[in-house]
Amino acid sequence: MTTAPVGTTPTPLRGIRRVVREPFTAAAWRRAAYAVLAFPLCLLCIPLALVGGPAGRVQRALVRRLLGVELRGRRRGLAHALLATPVNLLVMMVTLYGWSIVPMNLGWPLRAGSDYSTAWGGPTYIGAYAFHAVFGGLGFLLLMPWLGRAMAALQLRIARLLLS
């Protein structure tokens, strides 16, 4: 059996720390902001590109600012605005819904009409609240940054293909 050198953390513990810290990183929130802003920006860039405006430059600026990737190229951006819009809409909806589940379940007792006798985790109040807080609140808090990372990778792949 091998042991880790003195002063280092074993790999499984490091992985757990990474999962727990990810919702509180700036990069996770920038990816969430990109997921929410990419769709309305695409809608704005369609008419902007049609009148000869800097649609590609605007879209590349959003990628650079929020995802930290510099896209080189001179493509206009109409193709990206048109083809990325459905993906960006889906990503925005998943992001908004997924992140809204966190406070909704952590504050489960405050929701109107929360009948704990028939709720998941019921029939006791503490059981229903614990179930909603752990699985709905904390579970989605830990899941959403990783789902956001995957969705941002897809959006970035589309942007690289169509903007650079």
Explain this structure.
It is flat and about 60 Å long. The protein contains 5 helices and no strands. The chain has helices spanning 11-21, 26-50, 55-67, 78-106, 125-163. The longest helix is centred in the C-terminal third of the chain and has 39 residues, at 125-163. Helix content is 71%, strand content 0%. The mean pLDDT is 89. It is mainly α.
Share of helix among residues?
Answer: over 70%
Strand content: under 5%
How far apart are the termini?
50 Å
Number of helices: 5
Rounded to the nearest angstrom, the radius of gyration is 21 Å
Report the uncertain regions. none
Mean pLDDT over all positions: 89
- Bulk shape: flat
Topology as H/E string? Answer: HHHHH
Q: Structural class of the secondary elements?
A: mainly alpha
Largest sheet: none
How many β-strands, per DSSP?
0
Short description:
The protein contains five helices and no strands. With 164 residues, it is mostly helical.
Please describe the topology of this protein:
Blueprint: H1 11-21, H2 26-50, H3 55-67, H4 78-106, H5 125-163
Helix pairs in contact: 2-3, 2-4, 2-5, 3-5, 4-5
Structural features:
164 residues; mainly alpha; flat
